[in-house]
Specification:
CATH architecture: 2-Layer Sandwich
CATH topology: Nucleotidyltransferase, domain 5
Strand order of the largest sheet: 3-2-1-4-5
Largest sheet: 5 strands, mixed
Strand content: 15-25%
Order of helices and strands: HEEEHEHEHH
Shape: globular
Helix content: 40-55%
Structural class: alpha/beta
Number of helices: 5
CATH superfamily: YqgF/RNase H-like domain
């Protein structure tokens, strides 16, 4: 269920893991928090294909996820662009699919501006070449988004 209120999202995800999605045109990077919302870890990158929603469902069930954070690019004027609208549509499809599978999780959007640049900088020495870095960059961008969200909201410090 899409939630607009940060307090509601925090309440519904208390002591539960959160996954973060960094949606690109072809792939989605995924990061995961711990139950105490202190750690953000890159998890995996999955393709946006026919199995996409099923793959998200599997992650939710396998890791006992309590909420989904979705990175949303917002411009300086807080306006929604074409990519933002695409991400909102993908998120609505995920929400609809999960509800049809009797999974009701809070879903919240978080500003993702400049996270890919930060992830690129963070990972430049982790990979042998740029091709491998580019392949795995989305999950590190998701980690940056989730980490930013957790730090900004002081999760675990309440």
């Amino acid at each position: 269920m899409l939630v607009r209120n940060i307090k509601e999202f925090k309440k519904k995800t208390n002591k539960k893991k959160i996954i973060c999605l960094d949606c690109g045109k072809k792939k989605v990077g995924i990061a995961i928090s711990d139950d105490n919302h202190k750690i953000s870890m890159p998890m995996k990158t999955i393709k946006k294909n026919k199995e996409f929603n099923q793959n998200i469902k599997k992650i939710i069930l396998d890791f006992n996820i309590g909420g989904i954070l979705v990175g949303l690019p917002i411009d300086e004027k807080k306006k929604i662009n074409r990519m933002s609208q695409s991400i909102k549509d993908i998120t609505r499809n995920i929400d609809f699919f999960l509800k049809n599978n009797n999974i009701k999780l809070p879903i919240y959007f978080w500003d993702e501006n400049f996270t890919s640049i930060e992830a690129e900088s963070m990972t430049e020495n982790l990979f042998v070449n740029k091709k491998q870095q580019k392949k795995d960059l989305d999950k590190f961008a998701a980690k940056v988004i989730l980490e930013d969200f957790l730090n900004f909201n002081n999760f675990g410090n309440e």
